[in-house]
Design a protein that fits this description.
The chain is mainly alpha-helical and 115 residues long. It has 5 helices and 2 strands; from the N terminus they run H-H-H-H-E-E-H. A two-stranded antiparallel sheet has the order 1-2. Strand 1 and strand 2 form a beta hairpin. The radius of gyration is 14 Å and the shape is globular.
């Protein structure tokens, strides 16, 4: 899952011209988050992974090929359960931000876990 997200981030950066840290900051509110995932210093919850995929999908440049080895999301979810749908990329990004903050708080509360 992490390898797919990092690969997707790198592909997005290549087709959009945006840096990995800039994309990471927009998605996770932290510029080094994707680098930390790539280095094995962080983990990611399935819901956060899915919301990050939605973020990339909603911003993927027109005419650019989506990576063939990653299923592209059909719609965006606006809550942690995935029950609601929206076509608003900002709602999907807001969900990523909320989930990332929740994950950070949970990791901080677990002794011995890397933040």
């Amino acid at each position: 899952m992490i390898e797919k997200l990092v690969g997707l981030a790198d592909a997005y950066c290549e087709v959009s011209g945006q840096s990995r840290s800039a994309a990471s900051k927009e998605i996770f509110q932290r510029g080094g988050h994707i680098d930390d995932l790539a280095a094995g210093n962080r983990d990611i919850a399935t819901g956060t992974f899915e919301r990050a995929l939605n973020w990339f999908s909603s911003r993927w440049p027109d005419g650019a090929a989506w990576p063939a080895d990653i299923a592209r999301p059909d719609k965006f979810t606006d809550d942690a359960s995935g029950a609601g749908t929206t076509s608003s990329p900002s709602a999907a990004a807001g969900s990523v931000q909320a989930c990332s903050a929740r994950e950070s708080a949970e990791q901080a509360a677990i002794p011995g876990e890397a933040a």
